[in-house]
Amino acid sequence: MTTNITEQYWKLYAQKENLNLEVPAAWMFGDGSKEMGDELAKLVVDGIKTATCAAYCVYEFENEEPPKQGQYDIVLDGSNQPAAIIQYTNVELLKMNEVSADFAKNEGEGDLSYTYWYEEHVKFFTWELGLYNLTFSDDLMLVCQTFRVVDTFAPRN
Fold this sequence. Notes:
With 157 residues, the chain is α+β, with helices and mostly antiparallel strands.
């Protein structure tokens, strides 16, 4: 979902950085709830969350391409307002049970432990795959993405 404010935000950033690119995808982390969207966007803005992952099969079901290294995206908060612009520094396919503790820590959630990451992602992917009548397994193929924040949104008054 891209709003006028999101488009304006991107255009100002692109002009400042001399980028001739279309407005990138704008999306919210999590399950779509305001609470989770706000919490995860804050972790991104604060520089704590520098990685994320998604089930590869969901990209296929939604007929979308996974992100690519160097690609920009706009992270939205729980109210679908821009929070930050990120750029992917690495994108790789890994089975969930092959994700490293370092990657889990870079997701920036909970106590930053692998155990927390794994348990929360089992819950999330069980819920998400259930939307497609699929069952979670620990060898679920994930698109693991690391990113850097290139700009944070400051409302213009």
